[in-house]
Amino acid sequence: MTVVVGYRPGVGGEAGLALATELCRSLRRDLAVVIALPRPWSVPSMAKVDAEFAAYAQRLGDDAESSARAALERHPVPTAVTVYRVADRSVSAALATATRRLGATMLVMGTRRQTGGHITLGSTTGRMVHSSEIPLALAPPGHEVAPDRPGIAGITCAYSATSEGDSAVARAAEMAADAGVRLRVASFGVAPTDMYPPEVGLGAERGVLAAWREQAGVALARLVSSGVVDADTDTVVATGTDYAAALAAVDWPAGEVLALGTTPRSGVKRVFLGSTATRILGGATVPTIVLPG
Fold first, then answer.
1. Which domains can be identified in the chain, with CATH numbers?
2. Which of 26, 172, 174, 286 would bridge 157 by S-S if both were Cys, CB 3.0 to 4.6 A apart?
3. Could you tell me the pLDDT band of residue 277, with boundaries at 50, 70 and 90?
């Protein structure tokens, strides 16, 4: 089984490769580094443009492969590592082609650098978030491998009390067991800041939030009683003025990874983020694995 990482020097490439090596160590998967290259024109040119373009693509691939291999020397993995160059019409198309050909079990990508270290989707990551048929792991900007922690340390699965939420928790539990790390299940809620007192009083809104927290706790307990998770699985309910604040209200130990379930939109199992999952992803500052619905 293989983990594919899309690599390009800079633009989140190093962060994505670092996360991929951690996942391969913990899950004992082979690693395939995919370098996406521009596809040459299909119609030959009488000028030297074709040869110049081919030379440019060759240099681009050589530089990227050299950079990737240097990074892998700093963070080696105990499993097989292969570097592939894939030419296609776009980076997302090259990654989709590579994951299919290699029978990949997970795709890893870096994300755009923004202030605050939150995960921000670019054009390629945004496209893959809505089209990937396998779990998609996203590395936050600047993610690095800690020398004293070669792999991931735990998985926190964001949970909503739905059948899709139960399925996501079950898959996260399998992944945690495979990696030999602990699982934690968390429900995140938003309590908007009071701007103007409503006619029924501020206590009514706070009462609604308290009721939600109670219902979330009951739903988490049901995961144990129904056998989705073990009785010793940690659970947490966190709220904030937005999802970034709710996520920040939870302690994130070094090496922790967030897992998100998604909403199915067709008979094909694909990643499709609903509004809540999108907001949680946007508030995340830790590596996040998006599970296809």
1. 1-151 (3.40.50.620), 152-293 (3.40.50.620)
2. 172
3. confident
